[in-house]
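Quick review question:
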């Protein structure tokens, strides 16, 4: 993944996280409270925003590395984007009254987040190995 793409994705993810957080805190406040789903919505927004920031950091790192660098960081960005869609997306749907089976999607998003962080570790291992030589 290019640094430009990662940067654009981070901006879109950050924008939508903040917009959905505000929407939940204001327009959906009573609905979420009545359904006891405020904490579910807040968890979706938290993970969405944290990974938007992680994608932003990755985009800056990608911009400062050579094209011959490790492919792992681009894979991390992809995994985090997929995690936002699956994890946060399924929690948003559940909070809005989506079918209960939607909750079965959430762990796959969590695994995508974990894979992304594993990819960051692999990227770091490769980078540190090449710097030590």
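Suggested answer, residue by residue:
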């Amino acid at each position: 993944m290019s640094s430009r793409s990662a940067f654009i994705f981070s901006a879109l993810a950050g924008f939508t996280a903040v917009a959905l957080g505000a929407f939940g805190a204001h327009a959906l406040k009573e609905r979420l409270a009545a359904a006891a789903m405020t904490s579910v919505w807040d968890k979706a927004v938290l993970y969405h925003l944290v990974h938007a920031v992680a994608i932003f950091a990755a985009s800056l790192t990608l911009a400062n590395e050579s094209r011959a660098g490790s492919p792992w960081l681009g894979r991390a960005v992809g995994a985090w984007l997929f995690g936002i869609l699956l994890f946060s997306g399924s929690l948003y749907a559940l909070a809005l009254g989506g079918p209960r089976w939607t909750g079965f999607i959430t762990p796959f998003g969590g695994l995508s987040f974990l894979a992304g962080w594993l990819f960051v570790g692999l990227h770091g291992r490769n980078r540190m190995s090449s710097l030590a030589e």
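Why it works: The chain has a mean pLDDT of 93. The two ends are 26 Å apart (CA to CA).
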